[in-house]
Amino acid sequence: MEEIQGDLLTSETLKSDLIKLGVQPEMTVMMHASMKALGGFVSGGPTAVILAIESCLTSEGTLVMPTHTPDLSDPEIWRYPPVKESWWQPIRDTMPAFEADLTPCLDMGVINECFRKQNGVVRSNHPQVSFAAWGSQKDRITANHSLEYSLSEQSPLARLYDLEGWVLLLGVGHNKNTTLHLAEYRAEYANKSETINKAPMLVDGEKKWVALCDVDFDTDDFNHLGECFEKETDYVRRGKVGNADSLLMPVKALVDYGVKWMEASRGR
Predict the structure, then answer these.
(1) Considering the entire predicted model, what is its pTM?
(2) Number of domains in the chain
(3) ∠ CA 57-125-91 to the nearest 5 degrees?
(4) I want to staple 171 with a disulfide (CB 3.0 to 4.6 A). Which of 126, 199, 216, 244 is the partner?
(5) Percent of the residues in the chain that have a pLDDT greater than 70, as a whole number
(6) Which among 186, 182, 250 has a CA at the least distance from the CA of 30?
(7) Does residue 2 belong to any structural domain of this protein?
(8) How far apart are CA 248 and CA 237, in angstroms?
């Protein structure tokens, strides 16, 4: 059997890379990360990645990750893949309601799923777009997450903006940057529309399907927006974490830029 190839990465080597990128103690950081993009062999797997950035931030800082659960939705709208119509009602009847301490976030990747289960981490109570947080500002960030208009002013994203936090894209592109949805809410553009999402929730201890009004999100131009932000400002810090191309940028500057960019570019 062949030996494992590539670099040996540890929590300490990852910490060193994160410090070089600009992660500092007491920062509030929203991380979107790809385990695969790190490359090589990570001793300790996702646990090592989490401990590396928490060690950089210290207990005075705050780490946030999306723990979204898009699978907790009406099967009638599923497209990737779709399910046969005869399954729709049985799925509705049997799908468990969202529970912050139980429901996994498998679509978010192994790092996020590992993080949400860490002692001391709290998770916001939204059935489809929850966030988990660790550190000094975790309760402020996750409290009172609005069920409707879920990524706007009463959301962890707005609290991240208020705290002048940072976004870390570790091995992923701008299209994975959830923070840009806050700009979507704040921007006014011609083709902006709303939608109704349905999710199973516990209401007075009983599972019910709840209809939630929200903006119809569109991430198709997020990569282009992010590239323009990089070219037109000097806010983005680029570097390598392990073998992953990584970016660190301030939320407030990004969202403010994103509002103006969307108003100028969308709906033409």
Answers:
(1) 0.96
(2) 1
(3) 125
(4) 244
(5) 99
(6) 250
(7) no
(8) 5
